[in-house]
Each structure stands twice: as C-alpha cells, then as structure tokens.
C-alpha cells in the first residue's frame, strides 16, 4: 500500500489498494495516474448510491412518496451545483446531460438555432469536444498558442477586433487536458465581453481541481457558460452539467424532444415546458445527480483551495525529480506550477509513448494515459509535427501516432506512489534496449 497514513484522503477513495497482476506472474498495488481521464469514485458516493437506491423512483408527476422524494432531491440539486461554481440562482440554469461533450454539443445546437451565422473563436489547445461541435454550424477560427503552449491573449484580442462584432462566442478550456495549463478565464471573459461576445468555459479539467467562480452577471468577468463532468470528480455515474443564462436557453426549442419536454401537445400544436425540463428529455439520471451532490459535499469539506495546492505540489515534486533523469523530455513544464492543474506530459527519448505506457503497466502496475488525448491539433503544434507528416496520416500511410505519456494526479495520490514511478522510469532509461525488445512497437 502507498501512504494511507501520509494522505488521509486515500481512505475516501474506492479501490486505492487494489492488487493487480504484473508481467511474469507477480502482483502489486495498482497506482492510478490517469485521473484526467476519469477518477475513481469516493466511497461515500458509492454508499450514497446504494442507500438511495431503495428510495429511487421516476421523478415529476408521480404521487408516491418515493417519486416525491426523488423529485425533491433532483430539483433542489441545481442550487448546490450553482453554489459550487459561483453561479447565480434565478439567472443561471443548470441543465443535466451525460458529460461535457454532450453539454457543448447541446450549446452549439442552441447557438445555431438562435444565431444561425457568425463566428466562434475556439483555440489551438482545445479538446476535440470543444472544437468539433462548432464546425459545420459556424465559421470557426482558432486563437494561437505561444511557444510554451499557452494561449496567446494578444491574438485573441486581435481576432475579436478583426471580426468586428461577429464573434458569437469564445469557447475555451479552463485547463488543458494535455499540458494542464490553466487559462485566465476571467481575463478572457473581460476581453470577450468588451467586443460583444460571450464565453464558454470547458471546465472538465478545471472544476474537479480548482475553485471556480462564474462571478455575477453584472461583472465584466462573468462566465456566461460552463460545462463539466462528474466522472472526473469522483462520481462516475454518467452525469454532466451545462450552466448558462435562462434568457438564452429560453429562446430554444428542445435539443431532444419527447417525454418531459412539453406542456401541451395536440397533433398540430406544441407548447414546450419551462426550463430546465424542456432540455432534459426522457427519464433523467437521478442516480447521477445523487452521486454528484455527494461528491460536491466531500470536495467542499476538503476545500478546493487545499486540493488545488496539494495536487500541484505532487506535480511539482514529479517535475523536480523527472527533470534529473537523462532522456526524459518534460514538455512545456516549467519550474513554477502555479498556472496549471496537476498534469505532467513527458516522453522518453528512443521509446514511443505507447511503449512507455505499456511498460509502466506491465512492470509496475502504474496506469497512465498516452497518445493525443483527443487534442490532436494541440499535440501537432507542441511537437512541431510537419504538414507533410499530417498529410501522410490523412492518407493512412502512417499508423504510429505522435503524442505523450500523461501523468495526472488526484487528491488521493501520494509521494510514495510518485517515488515508485521515478524508480521504474530510471530503470527504463537505463535499460532501453532490453525494453525495446520486450515491448516491440507495433507498426
């Protein structure tokens, strides 16, 4: 086991002491450094789901006690969500979806219905989920990144100026799932509003790791739209959140139409239900909401500010030690980790990222993520992938993808776990030829 005494929050997490097999027949305690993809559940979240299951019922319009109880929990949950991220009750609407990807797709459909045309400013550091939904609906342009992979705010303002009020939305990640860089979302909001645009923050990597404040609607730094997923914040039961102003959401017909979305229907007439019901078609994921509420309770009891500091200290410790190992490339990770969440991308010279990830799993029971992390344009820029290579990939002539090995930490990870990682990485670097034979790169 790894440091339950040194990190009491490990006791909150399901599965931290799970034993997994290694190559050769040995076993070890699993180490999870893949929290940016999804986090394990809080034990209390699992227990809350089990406890609530005996009371679970379909919400709204049911007259039974269980239905009334489920409805009350579901409906009152929205205030807890808004309180957690600094939203404004009465002005902001919480719409429940499956995940951040669905939230952004839903907003893109709303924007298409309301505005029809215009410009969406995305950025060169976005997850595909905050890029692809806007394509084919609007003209999409991309704010540049600088040499260190950070967003170029000067380029953002130049583009806002150049489009002369035609930018409908600036859509930006709160924190990169590749490099961990946190974007200055309130400064970006101020710029967007200065030129008549709104801002969407993809909070998938930000909300689980930092305190987030949408700020009042009267503030020039107000975040107009926020999306995030519970499965990245210790509640993996299939719920996500889209938050935005009632005044915009009221203008749209439902993205999905059917049960729960209507007030009056005849064969030739439809009157849609009020918000948020009209945007949540079908039987909703009450269990997911219960899980998210419990997760928020735990995170609030720990303090997001403390969690942020602790996780960044893990990333800093990792950087300080990995930077001393020959042949490890730490991409765009500098001494000061204050401007990022706890993500560390790296490669080992002479080994492909897929080989390193497999070795870590098979030899040490360490789970990481490798590849492009659904952010291929960002990876291409960070690694200076040539246009010629990209063209060959388009033709299908190159199968081996560029990318990184990604370490991403959670509140339960420990220094002892990182020390185990450092030990195996040193061994890999010292024995590259052996590992290249044992783990050949598949073409």
TrEMBL record:
Catalysed conversion reaction: (sulfur carrier)-H + L-cysteine = (sulfur carrier)-SH + L-alanine
Protein keywords: Lyase, Pyridoxal phosphate
Named cofactor requirement(s): pyridoxal 5'-phosphate
InterPro entries noted in UniProt: Aminotrans_V_dom, Aminotrans_V_PyrdxlP_BS, PyrdxlP-dep_Trfase, PyrdxlP-dep_Trfase_major, PyrdxlP-dep_Trfase_small
One GO MF term attached to the UniProt entry: cysteine desulfurase activity
Keyword Lyase: yes
Highest taxon, organism lineage: Bacteria
Protein's name according to its UniProt entry: Selenocysteine lyase/Cysteine desulfurase
Lineage: Bacteria, Bacillati, Bacillota, Clostridia, Lutisporales
